[in-house]
Amino acid sequence: MRNIRWSALAISLMLLQVLFVFSQTTIKSVDETRKAFKKLLDRPKLPLDVKQISKTTSGSYTYETVDFTSDKKADGSAERVPTYLVSPTEKKAKLPAVIMLHGTGGNKESQKSWLEEFAKRGWIGVAIDARHHGARSGGKKGSEAYNEAITKAWRAPKDKPQPMPFYFETCWDLWCTVDYLLQRDDVDPARIAMVGISMGGIQTWLAASVDERVSVMVPLIGVQSFKWTLENGKWQARANTIRKAHEAAASDMGEKEINAKVCKELWNKIIPGILEEFDCPNMLKLCAPRPMLILNGEKDPNCPIEGARIAFVSASEAYKKANVADKLKIVEAAGVPHTVTPEFKVETLAWLERWLK
Question: Does the residue 241 lie in any domain?
């Protein structure tokens, strides 16, 4: 693994690539982008109505399951967010909280080892089920419910409010998760971090970039450029993460197979702006001056490194402009595919230890 370092010439060349990629895109300022993304996802704020499902203590850790309301479903019932927490049993003061996000097909319980690592260090580990995952899947396995929800959103009439289950709606849930943590008397409101893997990494840079209550960010194997990926024929791995939804869109469009046209139409409808102002290179600029660690694999097909490097440069320029270059660290692991390596976990925990003091 290597911590990527650039020469002045390399930065200049990649900066030119950033400018080229976005030359035909109208990019708003940082404040305008933040407002635009919040407006896109905006919906009525509901009382959280927090319910304790379970609470047990085992040794030095306390395990809790709660849920709370974040939204209303189409049928008018409450959209509740199942949440799993692991914290030190002995609490002498308000503690940092670290939100840990799973990848496609995962669930909150799959993050237990991470949450215990956080609790071991005196923090509160928090994991939620993303929309259509885990306890929110209706009993379906893996990403089946997620694919079905995305397909349904693709087929929703354009003259009605558009559902956005692909990344975006979970971002709203994450903002509500921060609301919930701020209500707890054991959480330090100034020390809330967000870490995510793959899909969770994407949701991290989307949700945390505009929510300044999140003080530290670690997107794991999630940084990329959707625009670069689509325009350079590297969309296949991304489409395969929710293949059934892409196949449904291809069929509806009369295409024999998934192609770039299908991806563009589907993404523009269910993750609007992801190819323009809400693409990663633009959203990462919103994270400065807060500490951020980026971890990517050089051979990751889901996050092609050429597109990821555009985002790296964009972030580097923003942190340099804010005079906080020390608060950004980018790790590009040579030869590593779409996986979280043991070294990535070590880097993540060290970064959190540094900035959650």
Answer: no
Task: Identify the CATH number of the domain in which residue 56 sits.
Answer: 3.40.50.1820
- Spell out, as residue ranges, where the chain has pLDDT lower than 70: 1-27
Split into its structural domains, the chain has a count of 1
Burial 145-159 (b: 16+ CB within 10 A, else e): bbbbbbbebbeeeee
Residue 170 within a domain: yes
- What residues make up the domain containing 207? 2-232+272-355
Is residue 182 within 8 A of residue 189, CB to CB? The reply is: yes
| Cβ neighbours for 238, distance < 8 A, ≥ 6 positions apart | 226, 229, 263, 302
**Which of helix, strand or coil describes residue 25?**
coil
| 148 within some domain | yes
For the whole model, what pTM was predicted? 0.93
Start-to-end C-alpha separation, the chain:
26
pLDDT, one tens digit per residue, over 224-243 is 999 999 999 999 999 999 99
Contact 50, 66 (CB under 8 A): yes
